[in-house]
Design brief:
Elements (H helix, E strand, L loop, with lengths): L20 H10 L6 E2 L4 H11 L8 E4 H6 L2 H8 L5 E4 L3 H13 L5 E4 L5 H6 L2 E5 L5 H6 L2 E3 L4 H42 L8 H11 L1 H8 L22 H29 L11 H24 L7 H4 L5 H19 L1 H7 L6 H30 L7
Length: 395
């Protein structure tokens, strides 16, 4: 039947990439995520699509077919996959996809696989996270995957990565916030012991009031902190990095140390200003009650500024905007209001053994809190300066 025919024309089918894909690919590049196209299409087709969406930019990317993969042993495949150049794997079978995922995992890489067909199911299942297309994907692919994209958009993967990083950062933020003030509660007690003061600078009931009354709401508000603009500008964290990393512990000690110095200073300043010998102080002494009230209020006020300080990792909190998380401000004001009630309300004074503070006392405490925020802003400025410096000196 296919003889003596006359060519009348050609029909071409074109499935253009979504317009948001290129920006999503650029975001992945900035986040240190390597994208390898693994497809059953012809190499010319694969390269054309990859260039259109930004996966390929080099004039001569590395292109390997399934036939070449069959000729490579595990060592050769490792060499191919660990190269620094752009890589396209074309005319591959499901077995090839599985082999590629296994080889990358063997080198400690966290591998995400996207797919929509039944032939993608083995790789989706074996990957660290399989991402299936929800609208156009097969049932087999959706069942094998961990995550299903309802809109079939690659940009949704980038958004999910950003949100995941933001959630992890927020967990670290409220851990830094909560643990830093524990140093401010412990150090004054140790300092008073070594100084020979017969009483504690802060009582157990006051500590409970701080931990359960003033700190809970700001910590929850930090968990809802909006995504920082630079969340996709840094490489992925190491796979085995602990939540309490060196940087987190250093920040806890830095902020907690400043708070501890502040509350120790206000306590001993108040005690020495009275001119009363240490041995003459009793629990009911008005000066002592004012001093421990200063310690409790100092921790609460400094924690308000601490909450503002830990909102961002590197960006200045003033650039991020003080009103971008109104719940945090409301929670901090609630804590300070609760502290004021503890200081001025007679029933609470009896429970917490506190005394009313003068306006000058609050001014001193606010100054110490502002000093903490200024020190943290200076530290962030140093980090930003180091990040902008070119590697290898001035060359």
């Amino acid at each position: 039947m296919e003889s003596d025919l006359t060519l009348l024309g050609l029909a071409g089918m074109y499935d253009p990439p979504r317009p948001e894909v290129r920006d999503a690919v650029d975001a992945c590049r900035g986040a240190g995520i390597r994208i390898v196209m693994v497809t059953g299409d012809h190499p010319l087709t694969a390269e054309a699509v990859a260039r259109r969406v930004g996966i390929v930019r080099d004039p001569a990317p590395t292109v390997a077919t399934g036939t070449r993969l069959d000729a490579l042993d595990d060592g050769g495949l490792d060499t191919l996959l660990t190269g620094s150049g752009e890589l396209l794997l074309c005319r591959v079978s499901p077995e090839h996809k599985m082999r590629v995922v296994t080889a990358l995992q063997r080198h400690g890489e966290v591998v995400a696989v996207t797919g929509d067909g039944a032939n993608d199911a083995p790789a989706l299942k074996h990957a660290d996270i399989g991402v299936a297309m929800g609208a156009s994907g097969t049932d087999v692919a959706r069942e094998a995957a961990v995550m299903v994209l309802l809109d079939d958009s690659f940009a949704s993967i980038t958004t999910a990565v950003g949100l995941g990083r933001s959630v992890y950062r927020n967990i670290r933020k409220f851990l830094i916030y909560l643990f830093s003030h524990n140093i401010a509660e412990l150090v004054p007690i140790l300092a008073a012991t070594f100084a020979g003061f017969p009483l504690v600078p802060i009582t157990a009931v006051q500590i409970l009031a701080i931990d359960l009354g003033s700190d809970v709401l700001p910590a929850l508000a930090l968990g809802a902190e909006p995504m920082e603009p630079d969340v996709m500008d840094s490489p992925p964290r190491p796979r085995h990095e602990r939540l309490f990393s060196t940087s987190v512990m250093g920040r806890i000690l830095f902020l907690g140390g400043i708070q501890a110095l502040g509350v120790c200073a206000v306590f001993f300043w108040h005690i020495h200003a009275s001119g009363i010998p240490y041995a003459d102080f009793t629990k009911d002494d008005p000066v002592y009650r004012e001093a421990i009230t200063m310690v409790q209020a100092g921790i609460v006020v400094s924690q308000f500024f601490n909450a503002l300080a830990v909102r961002t990792d590197r960006q200045s909190v003033f650039r991020a905007g003080l009103m971008t998380n109104p719940w945090l401000l409301a929670a901090g004001c609630f804590g300070i209001g609760l502290m004021a009630a503890v200081s001025y309300t007679p029933p609470l004074q009896a429970v917490f053994h506190t005394a009313p503070l003068a306006p000058a006392d609050w001014a001193v405490l606010a100054a110490f809190g502002a000093l903490l925020l200024a020190a943290e802003e200076l530290r962030k400025g140093v980090l930003r300066h180091r990040r902008t410096q070119p590697k290898g000196g001035s060359r």
